[in-house]
Amino acid sequence: MGLYLFPELIDMSRAVREDFHPQTSLSPQDLFVDGAATLTTDGSRSSVGGVMGDPTLATASKGARLLDLAAKRLSSFLVEFSQLDINFPTAKVGNSR
Question: Which of 24, 55, 64, 69 is most buried per CB count within 10 Å?
Fold first, then answer.
């Protein structure tokens, strides 16, 4: 998304393809296929340069499509969440002593 959102900060000449070696044989898809939960690991332990995949294939157009999809999914989630009947505890204002 960086190439789309802030292209002036991205130096594609420094992009290097790196083989990603996950810490586990499990993937988020193994645990929660199309679910609301995901498994996140510390990528810095699996990647020297902080990338997963091949950043040399990145384009602003792909970033725009990814951002659009993320915004649509977040919007759908928020609409659905707003319709849930949940009683959240109210915060106390002022000194709690």
Answer: 55
